[in-house]
Amino acid sequence: MIIAANLKTNLTRKETNKYLAEVESFVSSKNITQEVLVFPAMSSLDTHDTSIIVGAQNAYATKDGAFTGEIGSVHLEEFAIKTILIGHSERRHILGETQEELAIKFNYYKDLGFKIVYCVGEPLEKRKAGKSEMMEYISSQYKGIDTEYKNLIIAYEPVWAIGTGLTPTLEDIQEIHTELKEKSTAPLLYGGSVKVTNAKDVLALKNVDGILVGSAALYGEHFCSMIEYAQELEGKEY
Ligand code: PGA
């Protein structure tokens, strides 16, 4: 399974290196065979000497150039980063990235062979509008995205569940994941208020191939427990 930590705008470079060392030491001491990904803040990227996959939370669809405040692929290359998060709800809804821009970014990093964790998910009003409108909204987030891309991982993250402590029911997660699996056979993660207390139940669900964790992952110990749960579920029946 795939266990990913989105550290968002938290942890300095020094703290991130300490965090990665803690996770790395856990992973090697427990002989973890799951795929572990960590997305540090941009200025915390470094030449990480670790078996953990370190990815960027964002980058612009360019090698370099005049895009004030952004970084390009040359900046990721400097640290041998080949993994990127695209379409996170905070980028879509707070930073205003459109589907068109996300598709351009997706294609740019796809052409460079990056592992892409692409996020989709509905805001509360779409969930309240009923199942078909909600699924239609989520489908629109696949526009311009190559769902067959071999290095693609999709994360389903309902916007209303991110950082709120609210989650869909386990039945809801399974039902939506089953539908989303029809759009793409890429591994499908669930994200949105995953904690130590619910991670195991979520990971055990059919069609859930892993989790993308924000706030709870800031506690290295909690993130490690979630990695261990995934390891315990190795070989679960689908
Ligand atoms: P959360 O964030 O775990 O704090 O809800 C998840 C995410 O934004 O990826």
What can you see in these coordinates?
- Helices cover 37% and strands 15% of the residues.
- It is built from nine helices and eight strands.
- It has helices at residues 13-29, 73-77, 89-93, 99-111, 124-128, 131-140, 170-180, 196-203, 220-232, and strands spanning 2-6, 35-39, 53-54, 83-86, 115-120, 152-156, 188-191, 210-213.
- Strands 3-2-1-8-7-6-5-4 form an eight-stranded parallel sheet, with helices on one face.
- β7 (188-191), α8 (196-203) and β8 (210-213) form a beta-alpha-beta unit.
- α1 (13-29) packs parallel to α9 (220-232) and α8 (196-203) runs parallel beside α9 (220-232).
- The longest helix is centred in the first third of the chain and has 17 residues, at 13-29.
- The model has no long low-confidence stretch (mean pLDDT 96).
- 2-phosphoglycolic acid is lined by residues 6, 157, 162-163, 191-194, 212-216.
Short recap of the structure:
It contains 9 helices and 8 strands. By secondary structure, it is an alpha/beta fold. Strands 3-2-1-8-7-6-5-4 form an 8-stranded parallel β-sheet, covered by helices on one side.
